[in-house]
Amino acid sequence: MRAWVSSRIGKVAAALMAAALLVAAAPALAQTAPTAPLSAPVAQTAAPAPAAPAAARPPVADGATPAYTAPSSDGYVLGINDKLRILVFGEESLSGEFSVDSTGRVAMPFIGEVQAAGLTRSAFEDALEARMREEQILLDPRVSIDLINFRPFYILGEVVRPGEYPSSSNLNVFNAVATAGGFTTLANQTRVMIKRSGEQIETEYSLLSPVTVNPGDTIRVLKGAFYILGEVNRPGEYPFSEGLTVQNAVATAGGFTYRANQREVVIKHRDEPAERKVRVNGSTPVQPGDTIRVTERFF
Fold first, then answer.
1. Which SS3 state, helix, strand or coil, does residue 256 take?
2. Could you tell me the domains of the chain?
3. Beta-carbon neighbour count of residue 234 at 10 Å?
């Protein structure tokens, strides 16, 4: 009986000791248990951290180069009738589309007229920023300019529809002539005269290779006709063609009359001051604008 009682007492004591250990461990468990849930919000708040730079992206996008920069380049010189998009960062009231007027200036709100013709795009940006600082409109202005439309080119002379036409990138004389309806039948298709924008004199260009046409240029297509007078059956003006000779020219004018000197004619080139005598044969060339005079022979 005593042994049984001792055994029961031992078991009860062991149970009491185990319960006491659990009670003692409970505060420690209570302190460590919240750590696991707290770690999850930390991970969630850390994840959006990269989003802070994303909020700063819109100003960068606002300052990006707009889509109309392709027609323009830093070396392009602005001129009358150029149409510009001017963007003043953060200032919509100062931004918009403007044209270079007939005086070569651009009229800006709150700023007034600013000289643009003769300046490159970047130089005009600097000029606008300097004016805004001088007028104390903005302390640190940032201006971006894009070319929307080039000023037109002009084509005169022997084309079907002479006049004013819009310019484009990489325009050459052949494209310009095609835009104006093509050459007339009397046009000189080998050489043209071009007065470059801002210059006062014309320069003659050969069309053996494409010649670039810049915005504001004036092209003049010369007559390519030749003239034949004197003792031919149909004197007058005739279209010039490559490889034309004096003999061909006489045939085009109906041939010699019976009084003509068929061995020798007088010819005057367009760019020469005086006439000269040449032999009538298949190798004497005729140039555009030449005047041929068939003299009467002496019997």
1. strand
2. 66-149 (3.30.1950.10), 153-223 (3.10.560.10), 226-294 (3.10.560.10)
3. 10
Residue owning tokens 């010699």:
256
Q: According to the model, what pLDDT value does residue 198 have? A: 78
Place of tokens 């380049």: 73
Give me the helices (H) in the chain, please.
2-32, 35-46, 51-55, 57-62, 121-134, 173-179, 246-252
Q: What percent of the chain has pLDDT over 90?
A: 37
Which tens digits make up the pLDDT trace of 81-119? 888 999 999 888 889 999 999 898 999 888 889 999 889
Report the Cα 150 to chain-centroid distance in Å. 7
pTM of the model: 0.56
Whole-angstrom CA distances from 29 to 23, 33, 105 are 10, 6, 81
pLDDT at position 201, please? 93
Burial group, residue 128, by CB count within 10 angstroms (0-12, 13-18, 19+): buried
Q: How far is CA 96 from the centre of its chain?
A: 19
